[in-house]
Request: fold
Amino acid sequence: MSFFGAFEITLPSSWVNKADQASDKGGLVGIFFMAFTLSLVSFSCTGPIIGTLLVEAARGSSYLGPIMGMTGFALALALPFGLFAAFPGWLNTLPKSGGWLNSVKVVLGFLELALAMKFLSNVDLAYHWGLLKREVFIAIWIVIFGLMGLYLLGKLKFSHDSDMHHLGTGRLIVAIITLSFTVYLIPGLWGAPLRAISGFPPPDFYKEWTKTEGGGAGASHSETCPHNLNCFHDYEEGMAYAQQVGKPVMIDFTGWSCVNCRKMEDNVWSQPAVLKVISEDYVLISLYVDDKTELPAAKQFVSTYTNKKVKSTGNKWSEMQSRIFHTNSQPYYVLLDHQGKLLANPVGYTPDAAVYKKYLEEGKCRFRGRE
Reply:
């Protein structure tokens, strides 16, 4: 909303003034406070980036990511000043400030809003609130990018915008791309796969208009499985059913907010040859490691492997994956026989449908050899 001109996010001016006064001291201290003043002035842009990196470092799960993030951020911030200091003549070639800067800010506002819906959708999926079903999400994106296209064409104007006397070529090209993308999204309201943005909208089975096909034993979860497959969301229940029907097990360690998981489901599982093997030759057990459904108090425990308390369904499956398979990345596919023994080496993200089908066939053949 700040990018749209509703308000400005700023820190107290006294902080900026004191830092600016300290920058006049010269030497390394002065250089430090010059940079600090720049960070304070651009707080609304630097805060989310630096804040996220600091939180990641404080968690202690990985230091490489925060170090690389801070290095990249510092380099990007300092590089223009270094280049202009070395080549002062370049300053004369910079575009003059004007209404185009506000247009850039507003366009970024539309993009921020679209991404905010994506991250809100992740939380909605993990907690099963049912607020942003697939059709609702796509409808919101259609409106956002449609309004963004109209804004670029000058049909929509905000309070801080200056009058646009003509439409520039670059602005027209961006408007055409934005409006074309908006039109591309529209069929998604009626079930089109939208593979170009696979992983961003909620999965196809998380929708307002649910149509359940199939049936038979083990079909109780088909309305919450990709491509209307019959799957289980509990390991023990799925293993028991696999023994009953005499089929091998495919464990799908996945996540509601896992983009690559959705890409696999939309682009690889959707291939007829792959879908046929999964549906006919395997019992699918999809375990969501970020599911926030709380376990009953009697079933909560402290993991001997991670030394952390397992309080939710997602914690349970994440701990299981870490303890047994020594990895915590998703997607992660494991083929097992009825004794829980591996039929093939587990694989992760495999965008090649032919390679993935060969992996499934390998597990199926080894299962038959053990019968």
Notes: DSSP finds twelve helices and six strands in the chain.
